[in-house]
Prior knowledge:
The protein is of the alpha/beta class.
Amino acid sequence: MAGQKMLKFVTLTKETPPKRDANLRAQDFDEIYRQFAVEKAAEQASRCSQCGVPYCQSHCPLHNNIPDWLRLTAEGRLEEAYELSQATNTFPEICGRICPQDRLCEGNCVIEQSGHGTVTIGSVEKYLTDKAWEMGWVKPITARTQRPESVGIIGAGPGGLAAADVLRRAGVQVTVYDRYDRAGGLLTYGIPGFKLEKPVVMQRIEQLEIAGVTFVLNCRVGEDMSFDAIRGQHDAVLIATGVYKARDIEAPGVGAKGVVRALDYLTASNRKSFGDDVPEFDSGELNADGKRVVVIGGGDTAMDCVRTAIRQGATSVKCLYRRDKANMPGSQRETQNAEEEGVEFVWLSAPKGFSGGTAVDGVMVQKMRLGAPDVSGRQVPELIEGADYVEPADLVVQALGFEPEAIQTLWGVPDLAVTRWGTIKADFRSHATNLPGVYAAGDIVRGASLVVWAIRDGREAAESILGYLAQPASVAAE
Length: 478
């Protein structure tokens, strides 16, 4: 009976796929987790309690039907499990690798709350989809009928690609515009290979290309093509550009050589992994080899930067964060991985400026303590007077998050409604903007967030666009 294969959390302990040795993995950009064997995946899936109210599912932005595909995995019905996992998720193999499951599905697992250790949902999800690609279970994107309507998507990141997938399955003609020379957005250039190997992303882009999605790359809207021109070529437009404007530190010396932005640093590293010619890397400007590296920030991007610097051969890597470990916004799992690989975290520390003149040689650090909570409930860092010191550094990476670019100005669309934060104002259900036939999804609406939220927004926006395209022309124009 199926029930006998589940509820084994009382006899089986939690196990994750083994990590490669920290010293070995720090020498390359390959993923750090080994693959589950089929027996181990089924065994770990069988620990699911099949609870009546699956908090794992409700805390997943995509509301993936996790208990059911765990049960199918435990029963050895792997193809059916994959089909169920991809029914709600355009890129399950990507989410299985990079989602912060400790804050989402796994962090809300019922057996985790009861002290038995969570079901390793992300690892099973990754295993299922990798097995599906290996076995040929991933079917080509096909539509029963081809439709004449055309949709332009600006941004080839996870939100835009998820929308393209939904629209092509419905037979709509799709063109995706992107500023980079490869599709994928941050999946391609922002996330290092040790978290997400690039062939995993490229195979999904190839699937969309085979399905008939047209990619117009190296296209900067507002420079190479106007937004009005794109609107004129399509029946509807989705803006899914993400947020790329880096938050800079306002401090003396910030413009010195050797003080760089996180995305520039990560993009250079990822380009090298593709075999591209990257002069900024080859010159040493965006290369940590032989340098004392300081990364400023405590989010997942900062973790990507410190772990990249280790692999590039930095002599030392330190991460400055103004709060303590318990209050950092990044994944605790990523922090642990970084510590294992040799990163030193300097908690309760904030930059005051940079020394060295035209070329940085140190970060002027202010020591902090945590004071009373603010309106969000987080304790506010307070300056400790007289505790300043200089942290030696040859390369400083600013990883303080991202903000939206000024799309109204850059694209020449002053009528497009934006919020006071610069994000596009869109209906939170339909993702429609104030411009007829124009939709927006992902980080450009919600601010810097998770890939899984962008996927959800892209899928929802695509469904709304299908509804819009089905309206009579007179209604759609209103």
